[in-house]
Write a structure and sequence with these properties.
alpha+beta, 2 domains, 3-stranded antiparallel sheet, globular
């Protein structure tokens, strides 16, 4: 059982952010935040039958993670990154945070501001992580109620799977579960918002559905040939945007 359909970026504004990042990557802009194929491989998570390993070291502490639809688990302990950077804005099978203790997986969460995965979307991969980790005490931390209730719920994945096996509709299993713990004093990125200025700009774009054009100055090695170019972002939800030339705009790209 696996989420083969994938979990997508939930907010249209995050999808526009994805388009901007893909423009930068396509044009070879070194400031792009999305991982290259080389970076994705370097940040892969592996299990050696005993411990989880990443970048040649035993995983320890908190790592954001994405499991891609081609079955790669990409992790990072860099708190300044977003899940979309690891996944290149693409759909994922599951997403959130792992907590390790010297190579042992202790907790899986669905905390993600960009993807905000539901329990139902995460459920198929919970069995995968449970079997992979070989930890009967493995915890699932659910952040989906945080935006409304400021509560985070923790469940034993073994209990989730036990209820799921008895339910005809596995999507209702959380309605019959008692959490192991309810956390009140912890912040969450689940359902987070963009910075006000960027949110307003993106929201305006989403509402009008009109092309967003901005100007930039192209610097070449020959100052005489330097010129002004434009880039237009069309309202095309799932298509990559092509650029008319190298462009740079600090205000737009400082996400």
């Amino acid at each position: 059982m696996r989420n083969t359909r994938g979990i997508s970026l939930k907010k249209q504004c995050f999808r526009i952010e994805r388009k901007l990042e893909r423009i930068k990557a396509k044009l070879g802009d070194g400031d792009t935040k999305y991982f290259s194929d080389k970076e994705r491989k370097r940040h892969q998570l592996f299990f050696n039958g005993n411990k989880f390993i990443t970048q040649g070291e035993v995983a320890h502490g908190t790592y954001m993670f994405v499991r891609t639809l081609d079955n790669l688990i990409i992790v990072s302990s860099d708190g300044s990154l977003h899940h979309s950077y690891l996944a290149n804005g693409k759909k994922v099978s599951s997403v959130g945070y792992f907590i390790f203790e010297y190579g042992k997986l202790k907790c899986v969460s669905n905390e993600s501001g960009h993807y905000t995965p539901t329990n139902e979307e995460m459920l198929p991969d919970l069995l995968f992580y449970y079997e992979l980790a070989k930890n009967p005490e493995l915890i699932y931390e659910d952040h989906s109620s945080f935006p409304e209730k400021n509560k985070i719920y923790q469940y034993k994945i073994a209990d989730i799977l036990n209820v799921t096996s008895k339910e005809e509709d596995s999507n209702t299993c959380f309605q019959h579960l008692q959490p192991q713990e309810v956390i009140w004093d912890k912040q969450s990125n689940y359902g987070r918002q963009l910075k006000v200025g960027i949110e307003n700009r993106y929201s305006s774009f989403c509402e009008t559905k009109t092309p967003y054009t901005f100007f930039s100055y192209e610097r070449n090695s020959n100052p005489v040939s330097s010129r002004v170019t434009t880039v237009s972002l069309g309202y095309q939800q799932d298509e990559e945007i092509m650029s008319s030339g190298y462009q740079r705009d600090e205000d737009i790209f400082s996400l």
